[in-house]
Amino acid sequence: MLPPRPSPVTFEHLPDGLGIGVASPRLSWTLPSGARRQAAYELELVRPGGTYRTGRIDSAEQILVPWPHDELSSRERVDVRVRLWQPDAAVPSDWSAPRSVEAGLLDPSDWRAVPVGAAWDEDPAAERRPARVRKDFRLRGHVARARLHVTAHGLYEVEINGARVGDEALAPGWTVYPERLRYRTHDVTAHLTEGENTIGAWLGDGWYRGKYGFDGGTRNIYGTDQSLIAQLEVEYDDGTNTVVATDGTWRAAPGPILTSGLYEGETFDARLHDPAWATPAGADTGEWTPVRTGSRDPGTLVAPLGPPVRCTEEIASVAVTRTEDGRHLLDFGQNLVGRLRVTVDGPAGTTVVLRHAEVLQDGELATRPLREAYSVDTLILSGGGPLTWEPRFTLHGFRYAEISGWPGELTSDAVTARVHHTDMRRTGWFECSDPLVNRLHENVVWSMRGNFVDLPTDCPQRDERLGWTGDIQVFAPTASFLHDCAGLLDSWLTDVGLEQLPDGTIPWYVPVIPGEPMWTPIHPGAAWGDVATLTPWTLFQRFGDRELLRRHHPMAKAWVDLVERLAGPDRLWDTGVQLGDWLDPAAPPDDPAAGRTDRYLVATAYFAHSTRHLALAAVELGHQEDAARYSALADEVADAFRRRYVLPTARLTSDSATAYAVALAFGLLAPEQRGPAADRLAEIVLADDARISTGFVGTPLICDALTDHGHLDVAYRLLLQTECPSWLYTVTMGATTVWERWDGLRPDGTLNPGGMTSFNHYALGAVADWMHRVVGGIAPSAAGYRELSFRPRPGGGITWARTRHDTPYGTAALSWELTAAGMTAHITVPEGCSATAELPGCAPLSLGPGEHLLDTSGPRAAVA
User: Fold this and answer.
1) pLDDT computed for residue 281 by the predictor
2) Which residue in 566, 334, 339, 548 sits closest to 447, CA to CA?
3) Is 696 left (phi over 0), alpha (psi -120 to 50) or beta?
4) Which of the two ends of the chain, N or C, has the fewest CB atoms closer than 10 A to its terminal CB?
């Protein structure tokens, strides 16, 4: 009997291999249970022209293994499988189940499609009614295989013969459109039939030409056209082909969507909709006119690096209240990002209006925090019977919805909230004996889901929703534990590199769009610009992707070189606009950067920290000269930090929690200074009864700074505080996501008066990374979790915790519980990995793959 077989291979960081955009995709697999170690592997590639096998390759590598043979050509499909040898095994395992990879259009010359859209005159400064486009075509034989490669200027949904193609939302997403426009490949074989066929697409403005950004937004950021770019490639049984591409033969007509915007919401007039519009019969309906063709450099069309946005969950309301004037107020029990689906019946012309908000004020929707993102969807009924509808090209951040104009009594089953975000695989879980901490962790998860909508945004509800660099810089360690976000963040970091200025400046948010005077013209800022160095390093540590680190290394190097020039020979970055410890709770509502910590102390600390990580990356990439240069520079900056900001007493010139947290967590203090500085940090925390006094910079660092320097008890005091400001204060106030401001909702129930008040902002939830590593006890010791540390450090009265993470190599888990005599711990080490377990009061213990039960009350034994 052959040993158990490994998992099917995966390709890059993608959920499947269809339409892949690289000619030599890297391969990953996990070992079967009980395999323990891999000594060698063999890959098999089955192509139309034959089968290739690598033969035995003596290697323990199983993550992002190089493609072993000839590169893929455009449209080529290859079935791949793997088998492996365990150490000292005479025979290999059985082959894994095969998995297919299929290249997209790898060469710009593969594209025939051009952008097509409405040809009628439009006012570019006004709201414009979206168009639909369509094409009738005839297929002369049985379809063996058909692929649709599709994207748009704006947003699109495609139908073929009246059936929706795919299930993604807000496609093609948001990238730096002039440089990178994503297309997606769909298998549409089952949609087609011999004879007459029709392809059609709904179009929306989206980020491309919709109103977007601050102060209500700017229109036409990338262009004024709204266009589809689609190429349908059909292969018949006899091997011949037909291509149906967007060109001047397509037709356009106004659709039943009257207006649509990501901020404004969507208005749909069902009286104007013919369900047969994208079928051959639909040619006789509507006012179809020739399209206007545009141009697009096909070299800018790129395949995705990660999964698309989809509906991932449906939530029913937990309460429906009818007001005296006939409105209905729905509470979904969870602040979420998505849209409502309604099923309603009423007379023609009945107008149903859906309004959304995150919180209530005096029993009404609190819409002031939305600013000019009105978040109103409107449905006009046709009178043709029950209609199920949801908007197509908008998303809202909300827990509550108000519905007016509903004909008759509204029942809870008539309205469903559909949750949307990038469809990342969940990889991390945590729970413990404290229910408030568990709700805090769930809030972090929900905030990540709501703000990972194609790119990492700051908030999902108001007129902003931008890819702020500082927010994800601090949150990336948490994000990469909770979800497989490598592909999404790799794609977004590619855009960060494209938006980087020639001098090395990293924008505050990416993609860059018109902003307030504070943000334009773009200038460098610490913690935000440091996303260039720190986030690629985080992704390398968590996903083991050295090539990702290599791709983004030039961006990181340019950033550090810029800061070196700005700091000058004294190595102090003490110039320019800095945000410091943004949203320190002591900062006034109208000036979030005016915190307690010297913003230039923060800037110099980040200069040292980024430079140190650039040196570490250079070591990994084999750039030895750079490694030595930047390591020496990091030492010089740390010396300069101590000279300027550390007093002879080891106190800092900014006597604030964030200042000490940064200095300790970034390793900027001399050995003799660390103890007194940590003691002072603990004093500051306890002086205010462990209420939070840190903002975006200090909050992710403070618990580690305390934990690693002898004050674990104080870190737990911070975590478990319930008075404002604190993490658990928001939980006691009913929060189901992480807030932007510690006091977004004041203890008296009133809203924070600041104009920037979001109730779904993940940055301050970065403490979850500490929870995973310290409370839960799981941390990587080598890139990709090839080596792990299991080191739970209980405190705060928490008596048990369960933590699980699906690493690239398989599942790692730790479940611990305090007993009268000590601690018991059940540990799972992934196959192919090694680990060190260090339980309280015990020496470290080396563990191999498999299940282990440890008990500190007696002799510790590992049991499989």
Assistant:
1) 87
2) 334
3) alpha
4) N
* pLDDT tens-digit map of 42-53: 999 999 989 999
Q: Mind listing the pLDDT tens digit for each residue in 382-398?
A: 998 999 999 999 999 99
Q: How many CB atoms lie within 10 A of CB 822?
A: 16
> Which of these, 713, 728, 805, 801, lies nearest to 764 by C-alpha position?
728
User: Using H for helix, E for strand and C for coil, what is the string for 554-606?
Assistant: HHHHHHHHHHHHHHHHHCCCCCCCCCCCCCCCCCCCCCCCCCCCCHHHHHHHH
3-state secondary structure 468-492: EHHHHHHHHHHHHHHECCHHHHHHH
Domain ranges (residues) in the chain: 10-103, 108-302, 309-422, 487-645, 780-855
Interaxial angle between packed helices 671-687 and 712-720, expressed in degrees from 0 to 180 and rounded to the nearest 10: 30
pTM for the whole structure: 0.97
**Residue 159 known to be catalytic:** no
- The answer for residues whose C-beta is within 8 angstroms of residue 773's C-beta and 6 or more apart is 779, 791
Query: Average pLDDT of 323-343?
Result: 96
The CATH number assigned to the domain with range 108-302 reads 2.60.120.260
| pLDDT value for 285 | 67
Determine the CATH number of domain 10-103. 2.60.40.10
C-beta of residue 724 within 8 angstroms of C-beta of residue 747? yes
Q: Provide the token pair at 694.
A: 């840190």
State yes or no: is 71 an active-site residue.
no
DSSP state of 203: E
| Fold of domain 309-422 | Jelly Rolls (2.60.120)
The arrangement of secondary structure in 780-855, i.e. its CATH architecture, is: Sandwich (2.60)
Strands (E) located in 665-751 = none
CATH assignment of 487-645? 1.50.10.10
270 forms beta bridges with: none
Burial zone of 23 (CB within 10 Å; 0-12 exposed, 13-18 middle, 19+ buried): middle
pLDDT at 59 over 50: yes
Q: In what order do the strands lie in the sheet with 131-139?
A: 163-164, 155-160, 195-204, 131-139, 251-254, 289-290
Tokens 């080598």 appear where? Answer: 782
Of the listed 157, 358, 464, 499, which one is catalytic?
Answer: 464
Element (H, E) at 17: strand 17-20
Task: Using DSSP bridges, classify how beta strands 10-11 and 800-807 pair: parallel, antiparallel or unpaired.
Answer: unpaired
- Coil/strand/helix, residue 652: strand
SS3 string, 328-360, reads EEEEEEEEEEEEEEEEECCCCCCEEEEEEECCE
For the chain, the distance separating the N- and C-terminal CA atoms, rounded to the nearest angstrom, is 22
Q: For the ranges 7-11, 518-522, 559-563, which has the lowest average pLDDT? A: 518-522
* Closest listed residue to residue 532, CA positions, set 472, 604, 485, 484: 472
409-427: per-residue pLDDT in tens?
Answer: 899 899 999 999 999 999 9
pLDDT at 864 exceeding the cut of 80: no
Distance CA 115, CA 152 (A): 7
What is the C-alpha separation between 377 and 269, in angstroms, rounded? 11
Q: What is the pLDDT of residues 225-263, one digit of tens each?
A: 999 999 999 999 999 999 999 999 999 999 999 999 999
Number of other CB atoms surrounding residue 677 within 10 Å: 25
* Residue in 159, 168, 266, 740 annotated catalytic: 740
Whether the domain at 108-302 and the domain at 309-422 fall into the same CATH topology: yes
Q: Name the token pair of 864.
A: 């499989």
